[in-house]
Design goal:
Shape of chain B: globular
Largest sheet of chain B: 8 strands, mixed
Distance between the termini of chain B: 48 Å
Radius of gyration of chain B: 20 Å
Oligomer: heterodimer
Number of domains of chain A: 1
CATH superfamily of the largest domain in chain B: Alpha/Beta hydrolase fold, catalytic domain
CATH class of the largest domain in chain B: Alpha Beta
Shape of chain A: globular
Structural class of chain A: alpha/beta
Number of helices of chain B: 11
Strand order of the largest sheet of chain A: 3-2-1-4-5-8-6-7
Largest interface: A-B, 22 and 23 residues
Order of helices and strands of chain B: EEEEEEEEHEHEHHHHHHHEHEH
Chain lengths: 195, 377
Amino acid sequence: MTLRPDLAVIAAHVAPGSRVLDIGCGDGALMAALESASGCDARGMELDGELVERCVARGLSVVQGDANIDLANYPDKAFDYAILSQTLQTATRPDRMLDELLRVGRRAFVSFPNFAHWRTRAALMFGGRMPVTRALPVSWYETQNIHHVTIEDFRDLARAKGATIERAWFFSGEKQIGAPAANWRAEFAVFELSR
Amino acid sequence: MGGGLPQVARPMNLAAPASPVYRIPHPLPLDCGQALEGCEIAYQTYGALAPDAANAVLVCHALTGDQYLASPHPITGKPGWWERMVGPGKPIDTNRHFVICANVIGSCMGSSGPASLAPDGRPYAMRFPVITIRDMVRGIIALLEGLGIARLHAVVGGSMGGMQALSLAANWPERASRVLVIASTARHSAQNIAFHEVGRQAIMADPAWAEGDYYAAEAKPDNGLAVARMAAHITYLSEAGLTAKFGRRLQDREAKGFGFDAEFQVESYLRYQGSGFTRRFDANSYLYITRAMDYFDIAEEHGGKLADAFAGTQARFCIVSFDTDWLYPTAESRHIVHALNAAGAKVSFVELSAPHGHDSFLLEHHQLDRVVKGFLE
């Protein structure tokens, strides 16, 4: 099974044998890859009960829960990595969630769609309406993305939280691209953080 | 009850010897400080034990359940209480697993309980020691030793069965690789205790209870036991479920009768449940088992912190709750999950949607089937 590009990059950079918490783990694709290919001890959290059921049915340890609330119940540094893929922009308070990620994990991977991608900018600039693009395909009134964020916003937030950006990866569609002008060119980004 | 219960004939020998019975070859130590001599455990097994004895699944039964998990009940003739879950090709697959279900001590289907004979040849009645959930599990562990099973592939239980599964995981962590807890709790709440007390008082207020010494008498405290069951049965259902099933519909009549017969269908249903229950259950057992559940608080057993009860556990856990269960609501399951997370245990948790309240775990539920099957694989 092919992983989504942000998940593939995370899977490739988690140290083998690590303890990992995948927040918003969906159907468990990344967890399954981490357990089978890297010998990781992976745990997941997912809001949607049907997805949790699919995870449990494939033998994964996944807890149905709301990351906005339930992360608070994990001890400090319980995991080598806390992973938040395509979920930060849906958080009630992304700043607090980032704090929680860096509290429960020694390191964190965060991926999110970049609201400053040129397509998004163009849609807003010339269309005058909330962008509906390949990376952000859902209309403003039904999207779960309540806190749109750009790559530069995220760098600012990481700095404000005293987090170190260890590595970053940028993507246009399925294709990985270089760092220069990423805030214009990248549809989504993956950051590895520590604190 | 005003004598409104239909009288149902019942076999007098509640401990019908339809199950194999294991006699524990040593006194069974109990939490109350006493030990039970010659303790017997009645049980049923399904499937075949693998040569390495690694395919055993223990299913623990609920308050009024018994060992007839997937085979007909000898008194009622009804199918086993979890036959839809346990059997060849079913989620708990007896083609793969050796499934064990034991009647808990304190109960009345062949295991030692208040109706059993004490060493003096008379029924224990209220001389039976007060037992705990952990004592029930002690008895079952002794049975497992007798069967040559050092480690279970899984322990599974709903409601009070889930309490036993948790107790086994906390007190005998090396005994099970997987722990599946459905619609259960790590402690009895004030509300849980309150409902049980209503039931116990109903039994003890029945003159036929006679301080528990009724085994040789003509009359049994059936009215009290039936009321206890009626009150408890309400807690196993949901308001929406009751409304859907009965609404305000009248039973066998067109108009209200301005009397106190079972005029509403829901009344008739509860009376039927209550009287049917007295055919197969002993009133004193009901007292002892509800008391054991009320004493249940795993955190208290482990210094007050639930996470400490599971410190260092290597078992995988799966906790399941139902959204309409108000007896052991989802919050209780989350409480267990948080403790397991804090202990670093491998835990899954899912809240399933079902209209039937606490009893949902016994009823048709495809998602539950998939979770159980997936977790046991």
